[in-house]
Fold this protein.
Amino acid sequence: MKAPSPAPDVPALHRGIRLLEWIAHRPSGATLSEAAEDLHFPLPSVLRLARALEELGYLRRDERSKRFSLTSRLLLIGQPQSSTQSLSDAARDPMRRILEATGETTQLCCLADSECVLLDQLPSPHAFKYVVDLGSRTSPHCCAPGKAILAFLPDSRRAEILSKLTLQRHTPHTLTSRKALESGLKQIRKDGFALDQGEHFEGIHCVAAPILDRHGHALAAITIAGPASRIPSDRFLELGRLIAQAAADASTRFLG
């Protein structure tokens, strides 16, 4: 029996997904002519795809620069979902309690491929605060939520991700030794929380704890981030325990 022919819209679907993936790796956005040139797509085709994705809410266009960038809509698809709610919904009240207790920006992150992605954020009320765009991506080796998730992944999955990482130095404090990183992950499993002591941005400290599934494996992580002057090293243990409790509450809410 002859196999059915592919639906005529399949090539357009493939191109649309490739366009989204291409724009996802350009935090400053991109013009359609840049996309057409890099992807080797006809410009009219890229224009049609971009307009459709904009109408669906997956792309936004800056009127001044004419550059397209991703919206946070894809995060709603990519994050873990239970039978009743999203992970963001389950984590929202625990995150609010952390914000009230610490006064620092509180974030929810997960891994996408081998990158740590920001899913949700409650900004600090301080005038000077640490905030980033939803969907921002960071290598997990230099941020507290990334290390918290890595530490609590199944061994095979953690090894797979570590094999893909380039341990780029961002500050003098960044871990660039695989041996040092793996040793740090062992300590995180003992402590139940992870730290970023100016490893991604100089002067910014973060404390994070994993949200675990029923097998004790990380689904995501909750973190606080702020200036080192307000998150000093002598508060790491106190804050780590606070965030670990909130992450455990988020896990219970999510798993039901």
